[in-house]
Amino acid sequence: MAALLQVNDLHIRYGALEALKGVTLSVEEGEVVTVLGANGAGKSTLLRAISGLLPAREGEILLDGATLARVPAFDIVLKGISHAPEGRKVFSTLTVEENLNLGAFTRRRRRAEVIRARDRVFELFPLLKDRRSQLAGTLSGGEQQMLAIGRALMSTPRILLLDEPSLGLAPILVNLIFTIIQEINRQGVAILLVEQNAHQALALARRGYVLETGTISAHGSSQELQSDQRIQEAYLGGAGLSARGN
Predict the structure, then answer these.
(1) Which residues are within 8 A (CB) of 79 and not within 5 positions of it... i.e. 6 or more apart?
(2) pLDDT-derived band of residue 239, with 50, 70 and 90 as boundaries?
(3) What's the rounded mean pLDDT across residues 1-8?
(4) Is 163 exposed, middle or buried (0-12, 13-18, 19+ CB in 10 A)?
(5) Nearest to 208 by CA among 241, 171, 244
(6) Is 75 or 168 the better-scoring residue by pLDDT?
(7) Pseudo-torsion of CA 141, 142, 147, 153, nearest 10°?
(8) Which of 39, 90, 120, 246 could be bridged to 136 by S-S, CB 3.0 to 4.6 A?
(9) Which of 82, 57, 84, 83 is nearest to 69 (CA)?
(10) Could you name the CATH architecture of 29-52+73-244?
(11) Is residue 240 within a helix (H) or strand (E), and if so which, with residue range?
(12) From the CB of residue 124, how many other CB atoms can be counted at a distance below 10 Å?
């Protein structure tokens, strides 16, 4: 049986720079998989390629065993992949509700489905319901991150690509965001999570990959990665989660 998402030998170039050099990974139905790596490792490039925003030089990206080559980005959304980008990128001059409605652009003629999706987002993020008429640019960083995730959920994805959802947030908000991500997964959405907070990411994910300068340098179960001394030193402050009783 094919994985929900399969990336095989993916190469991405920015001019002369090869940002991804043969990346292979998979995400199963209902699974949380994390990609760890330093700034510049190629993590955001990987998600942008999967969501159709960057063309592949070599390799393939498959959804349910079918290639996504030459599939436009909006059709990739229709097929069940949604992307919450790094830096939130909300539309600051639009209201919270208008931002959410843009996330349902591909199903805009199916009003009942849009309303159901919006109600689901408001259940996950009650604060967004309270702020539905507020301009997105006036929200706090944490509130904007909630909005970015909520907007991505408006297309009712099968797999959600999350790029650094904890970036720039206070610890209490990081915990809240990860609790909500866990609930999204419990509702049946597979998640590919790019995250520099390795402790939180590995605590949530079933499996993980380490991306270094465009190549996968390690992969395995979260427990295996937590126990790897090199990964502990590079990403976990010198001590794995298991060593701290988690």
Answers:
(1) 63, 68, 71
(2) very low
(3) 90
(4) buried
(5) 241
(6) 75
(7) 140
(8) 90
(9) 57
(10) 3-Layer(aba) Sandwich (3.40)
(11) none
(12) 17
